[in-house]
Amino acid sequence: MSQIAYNGLWANAMESLGKLLLAEEPVQQEVKPSDHFLTVAEFYIKYVQAFRGLEEAYDQIVHPQKRLLLREILDGVMGRVLELKNEMVELESSEYHYLDHVTDALKYSPAELEVPIPNYFTVERSAEIAQRRAMLADILARMEAEAEAVREAEREAERKNREEEGEDNSDDDDDTPRRPRAAATESVEDAADEDKPTAEAGGGEKQQGGEEKQMTKKEKEREKQEKLRRKEQEKLQRQAEKERQEREDKERLRRAALDRGEAAMHRAAVTIQSLWRGWAGRRATARLRWEELVFLGMMESTEHTPPEDNVALQATKARRRDKQRVHERQYEVAIVTITDELWRVDAVFMADAMKEEIRQWINDLFAEKGQYPEYPEEEEGGSQLIVEEKRRAEELAAGLENEDANNKEPKDKKEGKKDKKDKKGKEGEEEKPQVVHLKPSNFLADIDTGNRMFQEVWNKRDESKNFVQGHEDGLIRDMQRKLVEPELRLKVDVEMRLELEELERIEEERKAADAKGKKGKAGKAGKGKKGGKKGKKDKKGGKGGKGGKKKKEEVDITADRPLEELYEELVREGLLIKAEPVKMRDYLGDYSYLGNEMRKDNLEVRPSLSDVRQVLTLFAILPLGSQTVHEKAPLTKAIFLTGPAGVGKKMLVHAVCQEVGANLFDLSPQNILGHYPGPDGLNMMLHMVFKVAKLMQPSVVWIGDADKMFNKKVPKEDKDLDVKRLKKDLPKVVKAMKAGERVLILGTSRDPTNTDIKAVAKVYSKILVVPGPDYSSRYQLWKQLIKKQGGQVTSSLDISALSKISDGYTPGLMLQVIGSVLTEERCAQLDKRPLTAEEFVEPLSKTEAVTAAEKLLVAWDGKTPLGKKRTKAAKEKEEAAAEKAKGKKK
Question: For the chain, how are helix, strand and coil distributed in percent, rounded to 5?
Fold first, then answer.
């Protein structure tokens, strides 16, 4: 796509946003209770569509000034999506929603509901992320080298100990009498002299036999080499004969073609054309059939996507990002240059214009009241207050003119309007339908401001001369002029206050010259009043300074230690770990297609893995990635992930870190065991972890087996782990976390059924149950996991049957089964013997499903705060339906 295409994408998204802003104005006032959730869900889906378009445009547009505005709008839309999601959670008392009926009505596909993760979260911080990873890798490498040196020293000490023990044993065990060394040497030499003649005689005979054998070997080797030489010569002769024959055949064919002439060439061309057209027609037919199968969902589109196309696309996008950085550097240089020019040249004319405007104001008031006005103080806004008062007066005058024009309407029209209003009022008094209000938004004003700026500046701007999409000096000048003006106005105010004082002095002297009595005293009284006013202001200021108690500031117990030292200590203690290279897109799972229909039929609905991925993207990744969103959107401090073993909870934690380039701290009970013992040690550990996390945000604090600290009774096997070590201090830490501090606590648990739910809900504001995959997710998982393990998905492999029989199995268990089937030997036979579903049946039957654990988790989820609200709402709905049915019978 070109820059024109991405500009068009931005324009389309802004058009959608404009319509949404217009639609939200009446809805912010009132909406029917029955339509409340549907209205919010519809807005949510439409904002997600706008979000997708804006994110793609921001990722690839290279114009630096467009990107600044686009970033503000993008952050605003992200925040609005989060606000709507939180409102949906409150309305349905559930973190998961099934919007298939809304998407059907709006004609959106499930793929278009996927909340994107902006690339700028990591792209714009790539240098910082690379530096952190290098620092972590360097510390880990040094730790490994130190550990290897210790292991080598231990091995060396062990080897020396063994040698020493061996020498001691040889000295103790040898009880035989020993002869002196000299005597032993003499006996050996005598024995050697006695044996010498015999050895020489035998050696001569052996030497003669050896020479004969050596001659025989040489002759055999010579014959062998001769045979090889003859074979090589014969081979070369045959090859030369073959080449000569080929040359003769080519020459004969050339002469035959020349003999046949143009007619033969024409026949050959027709034959080639017919063959090619047949082949092209068959290929086109196969392509059409493949597209039809893809459309029906019976074949994957990626099977025919050339990999080189994807590589080229990614390379093009990377080049555009490099160009973005170049244009941003040029833009920053231009800002400095143009600002200097404004101060050198334009500031003089701007100051003259401001002075002239202030002088006009002074003269007008003097002519009207006969005395000079009081100049506004700097705290009140200075001369800016004068400009604003003048603007308000002009707007008021314009409004009065419009009212006069409206009052001139014919009486008949007015009476007609009045009658209509009276009728509407009477109808309203009769019906008065019950209405509810949507929650106020912190982002609508930002989106509206961005939309108006887009319409004014960029919507119909002629960019025919800006082919490279670089910065525009005129826009920089206008922007910097607004920044220079307040600073310049302060200097002008100082000069104009002196000028006004001089005018007052001259006026007082003139009055004193005309009449020295009463008028002079009146002037002094006027001055006294002014001084009294100033005194009041000072008094108010002093009073404001005294009010309110100061909060107790948190003591920094590591203020004397640099951040790098704290970081290295946490790495060495194993509390700051490296995140695994996984992304959210690697967490496979399909959309829940029939969730709403199942709810209508009062069937149990469990969220799909896609729903889990989306909820975590909204509540964890978007706030961590955007400072604006974290500051203004509803704050999520801690998330509790629970699900059976193998559903991918740990993978989700690492994926969140990778998507935003966050640090990962591990405060799992088994990981902090033995580190920083005692109450003081625990205080130091938590202080260091959260200090580093806040200073190097975004950061994720992971607590594995988070349920164990809230267990009512600690199991015997966990008593040595001190699992309740964080129970008292963690709620205090969570309470101290503020908006703008991009730190998230993620707790994971396999079995929370024995926990104190109130204590869990006190720490974790979001409790997400991660279920096993449903049918559509299992279908997708079998396909992708088999391919990742080196297998091939062919028509002989019944994925649908595998998906049906693997109900109750988590992705981790499915991966184990696939690994047991796809061994190296089996992968080598895939071309001759494709995979079949039967091969997976036996390993599946030997693996225990997690159906029972899932049922326990569903029951536990019903006891959580949101679960209780859902149960209460369902009971109220049933009671209302029963009362309605009784009323119909009567």
Answer: 75, 5, 25
pLDDT tens profile 119-153? 999 999 999 999 999 999 999 999 999 999 999 99
Residue-wise pLDDT for 351-408, tens only, equals 898 888 888 888 888 888 888 888 888 887 788 888 887 777 777 777 666 665 555 5
Kindly report each contact of residues 801-805 with a partner whose C-beta sits within 8 Å and lies 24 or more positions away, as own/partner: 801/837, 802/778, 802/837, 802/840, 803/775, 803/778, 803/779, 804/775, 805/841, 805/844
pTM comes to 0.76
Tell me how far apart the alpha carbons of residues 321 and 118 are, in angstroms, rounded to a whole number.
14
- 812 with 772: CB under 8 angstroms? no
CA distance 238 to 215: 35
Q: Provide CB contacts within 8 A for 539, sequence distance 6+.
A: none
Specify whether the CB–CB gap between 663 and 873 falls below 8 A.
Answer: no
Say how far apart CA 328 and CA 362 lie, in whole Å: 45
Pairing of strands 766-769, 638-642: parallel
Q: Which helix (H) or strand (E) holds 7?
A: helix 3-29
Is the peptide bond prior to 679 cis by the omega test (within 30 degrees of 0)?
Answer: no
How far is CA 13 from its chain centroid? 21
C-alpha–C-alpha distance, residues 69 and 456, integer Å: 12
Convert the pLDDT of each residue in 78-110 to its tens digit: 999 999 999 999 988 888 888 888 888 888 888
Q: State how far the Cα of 647 lies from the Cα of 810, in Å rounded to an integer.
A: 5
**Angle at the Cα of 289 from the Cα atoms of 285 and 295, rounded to 5 degrees:** 145
Residues with Cβ within 8 Å of residue 381, at least 6 apart in sequence: 388
CB 496 within 8 A of CB 384: no
The C-alpha atoms of residue 118 and residue 883 are separated, in whole angstroms, by: 49
The secondary structure element, H or E, covering residue 826 is helix 824-828
Tally of residues, the chain: 890
The identity of residue 154, as a single letter, is E
pLDDT of 690 reads 93
Q: Are 849 and 809 in contact (CB under 8 A)?
A: yes
Which pair of tokens denotes residue 544? 């404001």
Q: Would you list the DSSP string of 849-867? A: P-HHHHHHHHHHHTTSHHH
Q: What percent of the chain has pLDDT over 70?
A: 81
